[in-house]
Amino acid sequence: MANTGTLLVISGPSGVGKSTVVARLRERIPFHFSVSATTRRPRSGERNGVDYYFVGEDEFEELVEGGRLLEWAEYSGRRYGTPRGPVITRLEAGEHVLLDIENLGAMQVKRSYPEATTIFLAPPSRDELERRLRSRGDTDEVDIQTRLEVAGWQEEMARGEFDYVVVNDELDRVVDEIVRIIRSPSH
Ligand code: ADP
Ligand code: 5GP
């Protein structure tokens, strides 16, 4: 389709550095960041409508039932989903749209939009992932353990299913690599 923007999906285990990389990408390339709906509670500093739309279970269910989500998945006991409307509108306006979502959602998007580019951010090691997750200081111990447990299979799955797996070792290098992927004509 002519003049349609690129749909870019970034996934990766919690704590690998997705938000950090997305913030740095923003300084390099204009894109619309898709704000997801979630049933989890806001962390300190998070703003409704900016980081997420924080909704109750009933409201989330209405979004699902009304077909208003492009994809949704359960993660760590909570539900997360991508509002469909803004993604379509922005792509049709020729903008790049970036989704920061977990693996199963990324695969749903790839099925509906085969032209989407999927990137999995992998940690340099499991120990480094744990260190980063703890350094954020905003996730309780049970949730940290759950998140580390799913990290292993997420990476295994990603290696077979995602278009690119990028190891988030050195931030500048990683941002350069993703900018190259977005600009490459073949993605
Ligand atoms: P996510 O959004 O994937 O959960 P964050 O972006 O919140 O992860 O990053 C988790 C922690 O890891 C933060 O403290 C962040 O500063 C740190 N971090 C992110 N990228 C890197 C990197 N390339 N090298 C070292 N630390 C990093
Ligand atoms: P967090 O609770 O740390 O903000 O996010 C937990 C996980 O949910 C992350 O892997 C994040 O990418 C993912 N996530 C955020 N929004 C969505 C969404 O709309 N859909 C799906 N499938 N996953 C999401």
The appropriate CATH architecture is: 3-Layer(aba) Sandwich
Cα radius of gyration in angstroms: 16 Å
Give the class from helix and strand content and strand pairing: alpha/beta
Classify the fold: give the CATH topology.
Rossmann fold
Tell me the distance between the termini.
14 Å
Number of domains: 1
Bound molecules: adenosine-5'-diphosphate, guanosine-5'-monophosphate
Give the low-pLDDT segments: none
Order of helices and strands: EHEEEHEEHEHEHHEH
| Major sheet size, sense and barrel closure | 5 strands, parallel
Sheet with most strands: strand arrangement: 2-7-1-8-9
Number of helical elements: 7
Principal-axis shape = globular
Q: Average pLDDT value?
A: 93
Q: At the fourth CATH level, what is the homologous superfamily?
A: P-loop containing nucleotide triphosphate hydrolases
Strands, helices and their partners?
Elements: E1 7-11, H1 18-26, E2 32-33, E3 36-38, E4 52-54, H2 57-65, E5 69-75, E6 78-83, H3 84-92, E7 97-100, H4 103-112, E8 117-122, H5 126-136, H6 141-161, E9 164-167, H7 171-183
Parallel strand pairs: 1-7, 1-8, 2-7, 3-4, 8-9
Antiparallel strand pairs: 3-6, 5-6
